[in-house]
Every structure is written in C-alpha cells, then in structure tokens.
Amino acid sequence: MAAYCRVSTKQEEQLNSYEVQKKYYEDRIRTEPKWSLVGIFADKGITGTSMKKRDEFNKMLRLCRKGKIDMIIVKSISRFARTKSISRFARNTVTLLETVRELKSLGIDVYFEEQNLHSIEPSSEFYISIYGSVAQSESENISANVKWGKARSAKEGNVPFHYKHFLGY
C-alpha cells in the first residue's frame, strides 16, 4: 500500500495541507489491519498537468512496476471539491488514463478516496475520465485567469521587477 499527495504551490497554506495529507495517510494506512505501508509519495510545489519534475510520483510508479506496491490511495482533505483526489493524481486526462490503465494492467488498484472509486473496478474508467476532464478544465481555467490577470496588470503599468537578482545596469 502506498499513498500519493501533491500540492501545486509552496505557499504556507498549501504546505500545511501537504503535511496534513501525509499525516492523514500515515494514520489511515496504519489503522487498516490488512494494509502495509510501503511509502508516502508526496510532491510539493509541482503541477499535476505534467509528469516532469514529479519525482515522488515517478518513484512510486517505478516501485509499482517492480511489484512492490499493489494499491495506491489518493486523498483530498477538501470536502467540497469533487475532483480533488483525482486532480492530485493528474490534471491531464490523457496522462491520468494512461497511468491508471498501466497500473490496472499490473494489477494495481488506485483508490480515489474522495470519490470512493477503485480504478480496478470495470466501470471506474468512465468516472475517472469524467473527473479527470473536469480537473483538467479547472487547471486550464485557472491558467487562463492567471495569464489574463498578468496581462491586465502589465497593461496598467504594474509589471513585477525582480531587482534582487538583476544583472547589468
């Protein structure tokens, strides 16, 4: 049994969420008599839209391929966002489905606790693809809003200037 968590920024609030997630996994897995903890794999300050730089996620996948993990639990600490545990796993629908399919072919179940969804179940791929596409759409909307905000700010003459690392004159 392994657990995966991820936060996308290194802001204090998200780092607190990161620590809460890790603690939750430790407690949850240790209290289940049939589960044995292989590890908690946690990436912080990393986007879920790409596999790049997700060192812990990729390490977990390598252990899965070696037969060291037979189940992964993904948890969201938010009771309100329905896509959170899936978006922690991946915010790119293609990557999400490819990864879940590969793990399923290896006999590894990914349990998305927020949705009470086991990837190993026959009907799960349909739900995973829906939740995954919603998570991807949320990510794309956030990105578009941030770009719009930066462009608007620049248009108004408010451009951030990082003078601490400025070279030249």
Properties at a glance:
single chain, 169 residues, alpha/beta, 5-stranded mixed beta sheet, 5 strands, globular
Compose a concise summary of this entry:
With 169 residues, the protein is an alpha/beta fold. Helices cover 49% and strands 13% of the residues. The longest helix is centred in the last third of the chain and has 32 residues, at 124-155.
User: Structural class per helix/strand content?
Assistant: alpha/beta
Low-pLDDT residue spans: 77-85
What characterizes the major β-sheet?
Answer: 5 strands, mixed
Q: What would you call the shape?
A: globular
What amount of the residues lies in strands?
5-15%
- Give the strand line-up of the largest sheet: 2-1-3-4-5
Describe the fold and architecture.
This protein is α/β, with parallel strands linked by helices and 169 residues long. Helix content is 49%, strand content 13%. Strands 2-1-3-4-5 form a five-stranded mixed beta sheet, sandwiched between helices. A hairpin with a 4-residue loop joins strand 4 and strand 5 (117-118). Helix 4 (93-105) packs antiparallel against helix 5.
